[in-house]
Write a structure and sequence with these properties.
- The chain has one domain (7-295).
- It is built from three helices and 19 strands.
- The chain has helices at 22-29, 173-176, 199-205; strands at residues 7-12, 34-45, 48-64, 69-70, 78-92, 95-106, 117-127, 130-139, 142-148, 156-157, 160-162, 168-169, 190-196, 212-218, 223-227, 230-241, 246-252, 259-264, 269-278.
- It has a 19-stranded mixed β-sheet that branches.
- It is globular and about 50 Å long.
- The two termini are 31 Å apart.
Length: 298
């Protein structure tokens, strides 16, 4: 039985109407604020579960097509993206891990893919033994990678992978399961897609990333769940890898469809503790730490 740190009621509730057109999207995500959500994290490492915290930061920004970085200003060659910064901190005995993955998703259909197609991912991990940086940049029919690691067997690499049409990158799932620009999978339905496991999993297992396959399914109807945000209607999206792990994501049914929790067959889980929309880049003065209370991190 999957628990997710949430209590699920027996009765189903009616699904709210979804409106994923551009005007509806920008009415919420164009307010010059970021959505910040704090989570209680359980991260398996070295054969043991590790307690930690995770923060998911979701914001829109302009992206430079040539350099594949945030653009200082709009100009020809820029396009809007949803940026997801996923930050994880967890302790392993005497030393800790500080991990961050940035995923950039084109707001509109682009390069033969629908809305929220991956433009780039970048990943970094810092712990007392050393640090690692990795990125994938999507260019037409391939993913072009760069890897810099303190491990001799990994060191400096420039791997490439073919892009698989309709492929799903695991690093993007905390956004994709929310259906912000169209459903990943319809209620009560399932579909099988090419699937690229996350950079974090590749890092922790010391295995290069490679395409596999996963079946993505969704509950037929939302149910009431008890969370740190109150009792909410929510639905579950399940991602089952062929010959691999299964992860279940619990998503708020009403807009803005926040990710309430996730749990994997690996033992990893995240449970929401708080959420707020803030221009966090302006909150860098002494005393602004009090805003962490909104995220359940204080």
């Amino acid at each position: 039985m999957w628990v997710f740190g949430l209590m699920t009621a027996v009765a189903a509730v009616a699904a709210p109407a979804r409106a994923d057109d551009a005007a509806t999207f920008w009415a919420h995500w164009g307010d010059s604020k970021a959505e910040l959500s704090g989570y209680r994290l359980v991260q398996p490492r070295y054969g043991q579960p590790r307690d930690g915290t995770a923060v998911l930061i979701v914001v829109t920004e302009d992206f430079d097509d040539a350099a594949r970085v945030k653009a200082d200003q709009k100009r020809p060659g820029t396009f809007p993206v949803v940026k997801l910064n996923a930050v994880r901190d967890f302790q392993t005995g005497i030393y800790d891990y500080n991990v961050m993955t940035s995923t950039f998703l084109a707001v509109d259909a682009r390069d033969g893919e629908g809305a929220l197609g991956v433009a780039k991912t970048s990943f970094s991990s810092q712990e007392w033994c050393g640090h690692v940086y990795q990125q994938w940049v999507r260019r037409g029919g391939e993913l072009r990678g760069a890897l810099h690691s303190y491990f001799e067997g990994e060191a400096d690499q420039t791997p490439t992978l073919p892009w698989r049409a309709g492929g799903v990158v695991e690093d993007a799932l905390p956004v994709l399961v929310r259906g912000l620009r169209g459903e990943l999978v319809a209620a009560g339905a399932s579909r099988t897609v090419p699937f690229l496991p996350s950079s974090l999993r590749a890092r922790l297992s010391h295995r290069p990333q490679a395409w596999g396959e996963a079946t993505i399914s969704r509950d037929a109807a939302p149910r009431k769940v008890k969370t740190a945000l109150g009792e909410l209607a929510a639905f579950t999206v399940t991602v089952a890898e062929r010959g691999g792990d299964t992860t279940r994501y619990v998503v708020e049914a009403a807009a803005p469809h926040r990710l309430l929790s996730w749990e994997s067959s690996t033992g990893e889980s995240g449970t929401i503790r708080g959420s707020a929309r803030l221009p966090y880049w302006q909150l860098n003065a002494n005393g602004n730490e009090d805003k962490l209370k909104l995220l359940g991190l204080r």
